[in-house]
Design a protein that fits this description.
246 residues; globular; 30% helix; alpha+beta; two-stranded antiparallel ribbon; 7 helices; nine-stranded mixed β-sheet
Length: 246
């Protein structure tokens, strides 16, 4: 955001997957990780402190560009921990992810009967973890690629100050499941996860991002990373008049 703000005060990270694979309950990435993420308590950073929320307590409806209105829920996500440390003057950071009503309804039923538990139980003389058993029963996310349709929309809404004036800015990319499968044989969630990691690794390897110590991505020059997103299949779009998340 070095070109757009002198000071960033608010960040909302919005992760929308509008893909449809035809299953009433399945995940587009590791089911165990996904379910643990959704059933855990949420949290966000505000005014120098972490505020904890009950699982799926905070819901918003957002009209995502090129995707449409979707229900999204506040979760804890690891990147907000480092952003809270490395962005001077930040007042609030939140992370939202979209989930459909059918998915949440099935998940609630499974949680009610204990299938999302990570506590081992004995079954026929063997110790099993219910969530790991559930994972084995669900479709392998890799198998969903050929049948998944729709788009993802992943981006950030920033609010802050530029040249003494208040400003809002939204940068995002839209990725199509079918186009991804045609190109690399996987659905868009794998694509949007893998491409940024590949770009980061390449910038480290070629020396663009290299200095002594351990750093997170936001501590490096963003320009080469953003240029590479356009080159490697995740071109980004921007607007300075975004719909803000209340």
């Amino acid at each position: 955001m070095k070109h757009h703000f002198d000071e960033i005060e608010y960040i909302d990270i919005l992760d929308c997957n509008a893909g449809d694979h035809g299953y009433p309950f399945a995940t587009n990435f590791n089911p165990e990780i996904n379910i643990r993420e959704v059933t855990a308590k949420g949290s966000y950073w505000e005014e120098g402190a972490w505020i904890e929320t009950e699982p799926m307590e905070i819901k918003r409806v957002y009209d995502f560009p090129e995707v449409g209105e979707k229900d999204m829920y506040l979760l804890h996500h690891e990147e907000i921990e480092s952003l809270a440390l490395h962005i001077p003057g930040i007042k609030r950071i939140r992370f939202f992810m979209t989930f459909g009503e059918s998915y949440l309804r099935h998940l609630q039923c499974l949680e009610n009967v204990g299938m999302t538990s990570i506590e081992p139980i004995m079954y026929e003389g063997k110790e099993i973890v219910p969530l790991q058993f559930l994972k084995a029963m669900l479709p392998d996310p890799a198998s969903l690629g050929p049948r998944t349709k729709g788009q993802t929309n992943i981006g950030c809404i920033f609010q802050g100050i530029k040249n003494g004036e208040r400003k809002s800015y939204y940068v995002y990319n839209v990725c199509d499941h079918e186009a991804c499968y045609e190109e690399v044989g996987s659905q868009a969630v794998s694509y949007t996860t893998g491409v940024p990691a590949m770009i980061g690794a390449s910038l480290v390897m070629d020396g663009t991002w290299q200095k002594p110590g351990v750093f997170n991505i936001e501590q490096f020059d963003p320009d080469p990373f953003m240029e590479a997103l356009n080159k490697w299949g995740l071109p980004w779009k921007e607007t300075e008049t975004p719909e803000l998340v209340k």
